[in-house]
Structures are given as C-alpha cells and as structure tokens.
Amino acid sequence: MADIEPSHAPTQARASVGGQPDAPRADQDQPAPRGPGQQKPAASGTGEDETERAREKEADRKQDQRRQKARPYVRIGMVVILAGLIGGGIWYWLSTKNLEDTDDAYTDGRAITISPRVTGQVISLDVTDNEFVHAGDPLIHIDPRQYEASLEQAQGQLAAARGQLAASTQGLEVAKVNFPARLQQAQAQLKDAQANLFKAQSDYKRQQSLPRAATTGQQVDYATAALRSAEAQLAQAQAAVTQAMPVKPNVEQIGAQVTQLQGTIMQADAAVKQAKLNLEWCIVRAPQDGWITRRNVEQGNYLTPGQQIFSIVSPQVWITANFKENQLQRMRPGQHVTISVDAYPQLKLTGHVDSIQLGSGSKFTAFPPENATGNFVKIVQRVPVKIDIDSGLDPSLPLPLGISAEPTVELK
User: Fold this and answer.
1) Which of 189, 223, 306, 308 is the Cys-Cys partner for 204 at CB 3.0 to 4.6 Å?
2) What is the pTM of this model?
3) Which is more confident, 270 or 19?
C-alpha cells in the first residue's frame, strides 16, 4: 500500500459552497511584504496564488480603514489652519489699518555755516574735526594788529570832533549875547549920527542965512563939510543897524555849526564802534552748541569775509519722511510716531508729527515738472513730513544727519 502524503489543506484555500475559496484564517502566517526590488515568488500552485491575492486584499482593506479613520483629523487640521490664516489676516488688518509707514525717510537738522566777518590771516586754530563746542567758544583767531590801529585812529578822530563841538558850543553861547548887543550898539550909533547930522544941518543953514559980512567963506566951508560928514556917518550907522538886524539868523548859523559837529561826532563814534567790532570779530566764536563738521581752514590761511570755514550741526535732530500723497489723507500734526534707525537698531525712538510741507518734493526742485506740456504720465508724488523726536535718544549715540530711518505714524 502506497504511503499517503500529508495533506496541504491548511495552507490551501478550500472551496466554499458557492465555489469561492475560503478566506485565510487569522492564525495563519502572513507572508512578508515584498520590497520594491523583490520579485514575487513563483506560485507553487493555484491555491497559493489565491492565498496571496487574499492577503493583498486584506492589506488594502486595512489601509483603507486607516485612511478613513485619519480623514476626520485631516479635515480638522485643515479647518484649524484655514481659521488661523483668516484670523491672522483679520488681526493684521485690524492692527495695521491705522498705521502708515515709509522707508523713504532720513534724519535732518540744522547745519550752520561759519564764516569770518573780517579779512586777515589765521594765527590760531582752537578746534578740530567733529568736536563738540558750546555757544561762545572761540574757533579761530585772526591777526588783530591792523584792526587795533584802526580803532586807535577812530578814537583820535572822535576826540578831535568832540573838541570842535565844545568850542562851537561855547561860540554859540557867546553869539547869543553878542549879536543882540551889536544891534543895540548899531542903533545907538545911528541915533548919534542922526544928532550929528541935525547939528551939521543947523550950522549949515545958519551960515547960509548970515550976511556975507557977518561970516567968512571958511566958516561956510566948515559948515558944508560938517554936513557932508554927518550925512556919511548917518549912512554908515544905518548900514551897521541893517547888518546887526538879523540877530536870530546869526545865532542859528552858529547853532547849525554845532549841529554839524554833533553829526561829525556821531560818525566818529560809529567809526569807533565799527573798529571795536572788527577787532572783536578777529575771534570767530561758535553761535550755538553743536558739533564741528566740514572744517575747511588751517592755521596760516588768509581769510576773507563770507568764506566758509566750518559747519556746526546743532543737537536738535528730527526726521524728514517723504510719504506718498495717498498716505496723507488721515495724517495730522500731533499724531504719535515710532521710529527705527538703520544705524542704531537698538534705539527705540518715539515722536510726533510736527508739520506737513505744503508742496511735494518735486515742486521745489531746480526744474519742477510742467504737466501742461507734452504727454502726461501720472506719478505718485511724495510730500515731506517733519517728525519731531520726543524720547529714546542716547546722548552717547548722536544721530548724524542724513542717515536712513523708518517712521510709523499712528493715524488715531
């Protein structure tokens, strides 16, 4: 009797009543999954192929189950992400709708040009580059010798003019007495001449009325000469009275000379003051506190009035921000501003809008645009806005003029 081979029923699919193979039992060993590079082992028979297909279907079914279980979590995650994006967008819009910022901004301030007022050679240079000076500090000294001599000359001319004025003032007082006295004297002499004339006329008439035997020719001639002399003296006395009559004009003439000398004194005094100013201007001093910049002078240089030798940058600094014209609708003076400076990121500056320039930057250029000529292309203009800095400055970090800044204006 032939040996009976062991049955392979446990590893083969049995046909069901309907002719379909039974599903593999759960306790049966599942084949290891194949890698991408592994080849499917050759089927040992039809039953093994069916078992492999069943296993693959079972694996696909479990994977579908896992996917179905994960779908709600994916949907929830997508909803959460979408809600976060929408919420973030709303928050960003709410937090920035009242803000206007620009990166077209820079620090600005006052730079005062220093120039000498007198001509001369620099004999002393008292400051150096980027040095901080206070108002009144000497910057340079100009040779003062010629201005000292001019001052002495002006003082001498003033003293001479004052002497002349004193003499004329005394002459005016004398004239006020002399001219009336001269008139009175001339009038008295006129009366005396009139009396002498009357006596001479009487003597002449008497000689003419006497008979020839009672007088002589010589007496007649004396009487005639006395009459002529008396008439001449009367004419002279009348002329003297006429000459002495304008007492007030004569006094006023002396007074005019006094006034003229007073004007001369004023001119001489002004010359003295100008000489003193020139001597004082030989020391060029700082007009205000600030830093020395753009030094353009050395000891020994010969300077002329108006020549630029220094610039002083004042400590007061503000921000000039060039906002677009469509950013100005709600911008008003006094609004709060936060400022960041590229050079010093650690500085947290705050300020306020001081004023808005009444004109765009292009309007004040050397050649402003003429929109009425040629083809017009609309370009958004920028308008300078002055922003004062209220707090946040560090005394050890002075802000140079012209460095970049980014202001943000709160439009509330």
Assistant:
1) 223
2) 0.60
3) 270
- CA–CA dist 219, 206 (Å, integer): 10
User: What is the rounded distance in angstroms from the CA atom of residue 6 to the CA atom of residue 104?
Assistant: 93
Residue where the block lists tokens 């069916």: 50
Using CB atoms within 10 A of its CB, is residue 181 exposed (0-12), middle (13-18) or buried (19+)?
Answer: exposed
Instruction: Report the alpha-carbon distance of residue 289 to residue 112 in Å, rounded.
Output: 11
Name which of 330, 393, 389 is nearest 356 in CA terms: 330
* Cβ(85)–Cβ(47) below 8 Å: no
Q: What is the pLDDT of residues 373-390, one digit of tens each?
A: 777 788 889 999 999 999
pLDDT in tens, 25-84: 444 444 444 444 444 444 445 678 888 888 888 888 778 777 777 777 777 888 888 888
Which helix (H) or strand (E) segment holds residue 106: the answer is strand 105-114
Pairing state of beta strands 138-142 and 336-341?
Answer: unpaired
Is the torsion defined by CA of 399, 400, 406, 410 positive or negative?
positive
Task: Give every CB contact of residue 189 below 8 A, 6+ residues apart in sequence.
Answer: 237, 240, 241
Residue ranges of domains in the chain: 105-143+290-410, 145-280
* Distance in angstroms between the alpha carbons of the first and the last residue of the chain: 109
Handedness of CA 155, 158, 163, 164 (dihedral sign): positive
Token pair, residue 199, equals: 């006596």
105-143+290-410 has CATH 2.40.30.170 classification:
yes
Amino acid at 133: V
**Which residues, in sequence order, are bridge partners of residue 141?**
124, 283
Which phi and psi angles does 343 have, rounded to 5°?
Answer: -70, -35
Measured between alpha carbons, how far is 57 from 78 in angstroms, rounded to an integer?
A: 31
Residue type present at position 152 = E
